[in-house]
Design brief:
3 strands; mainly alpha; three-stranded antiparallel beta sheet; 65% helix
Length: 158
Amino acid sequence: MTTDSDTPWLTNQEQRAWRTHLDVSRLLMHQLERDLQPFGLTNNDYEILVNLSEAEEHRLRMSDLAASTLQSKSRLSHQITRMENAGLVRRESCESDRRGLYAVLTEAGWETMRRVAPHHVASVRRHFIDLFTPETLESLHDSLAPVADHLREHRGNA
């Protein structure tokens, strides 16, 4: 490996924090995915169901849904096709823009969301929330919020 003397390499403390963050991110998402498997859902499926369940009239433009789930329009289209085949969502044309499409939560999708959400929340609690004190959770939020804000801003500029 060649090194560039101008590169601000991570200190041991920084490296440890970074790698712990990576481990937690990967391991937590893996566990949450495993806990959704008995319901026939993936993390991506669940995220889409959440977005649609919280949207007005349980519908979102496909472009807005792609942006909120950080998926390309093409990837989201494939994901929505799979979810349509499972009866969870449907596509509807946009009256005001003939090229636009909505993803709409079906009744079966809404019932799936209502059935799965308590189990998902319990999983999030068991594998994340309940491992912290309220004070540590507040500190964690305060520590991570600037990173999330920075990345949202950077994403908008990319």
